[in-house]
Hints:
There is one protein chain. By secondary structure, the protein is of the alpha/beta class. The protein contains 16 helices and 13 strands. The mean pLDDT is 97. Helix content is 45%, strand content 15%. Strand 2, helix 2 and strand 3 form a beta-alpha-beta unit. Bound molecules: uridine-diphosphate-N-acetylglucosamine. The site of uridine-diphosphate-N-acetylglucosamine has 17 residues, from helix 1, helix 5 and helix 11.
Amino acid sequence: xxxxxxxxxxxxxxxxxxxxxxxxxxxxxxxxxxxxxxxxxxxxxxxxxxxxxxxxxxxxxxxxxxxxxxxxxxxxxxxxxxxxxxxxxxxxxxxxxxxxxxxxxxxxxxxxxxxxxxxxxxxxxxxxxxxxxxxxxxxxxxxxxxxxxxxxxxxxxxxxxxxxxxxxxxxxxxxxxxxxxxxxxxxxxxxxxxxxxxxxxxxxxxxxxxxxxxxxxxxxxxxxxxxxxxxxxxxxxxxxxxxxxxxxxxxxxxxxxxxxxxxxxxxxxxxxxxxxxxxxxxxxxxxxxxxxxxxxxxxxxxxxxxxxxxxxxxxxxxxxxxxxxxxxxxxxxxxxxxxxxxxxxxxxxxxxxxxxxxx
Length: 359
Ligand code: UD1
């Protein structure tokens, strides 16, 4: 079986590691890196740390408007698919790279397999929501991380080719943990004590492109009684600099560059709590049993909220501060393996094999 995997943004590198390892044990995999994320600390470091094979192609599309970025990817991916003629194209998550991979392959009648299918925020102002809805509707095999995501697809009339496999991010997390890559060292390097700091990430368009939202978030972080360790996504860094928002970065905020995967997870697992607008980190906080404050109005990872580990505040200074104050009285209700057991990649490759041989 010959599979082309299309990846391009930081969370996709993290997701593709375990699947790639399983695939390459028996099959041919060709990796296309679209170049959506190109800074070394947003890309290369993840390949090294997570033992992901070097990409066979790098389209180097870089930044641009959604249309510019997606169209450059589409042209590049189509050319490679015509050249390599794979049996399947694997796409991950909900980025512009996911959308481009889905469109290029489906128009060439190459079966599309979507890892992390069926997630919905029901908020079409998010570019990620448009990307995942389109990707799901042209996919032939849909690998859902949870039952809720499979149910979302059923409500949209998608039932064929759907499987609940568990989440590949759990596979990656367990892989790093089993290799003893999660330690206290990054906590001490930052001069912090376990349990005494918060860790934050902010990069969603709704929180960065509207500078009133970003200012409110920075003010809430500055008001925190705990130090807020804040690895800055390049998008967020540029906006803080260009819009003169440094004035809102108070003493409690400890800014760092984007961090490697194991450093980030080590910091999450030792933090008092997590502040984020990322999808993946909400889930990682849940798996590591850390309270999470999500700076969005909605979430695709509804189980984290239902089980009492996650609260939604939106970009509201007072609600964020209140959620930080409430950390002492928060009582998560339950915890389960709702995101899987760390063997999602094996299931995904076995379903691909069965589909390929027609069994
Ligand atoms: C993208 C995804 C989002 C995902 C996130 C993970 C889309 C629409 N969004 O958002 O779903 O959660 O990645 O990080 O696909 N930049 C750099 N260096 C880099 C990468 C980006 O400087 O290595 C800058 C560029 O100037 C760019 C901006 O960051 O304009 C945003 O990058 P982009 O790829 O558009 O999306 P993300 O915000 O990273």
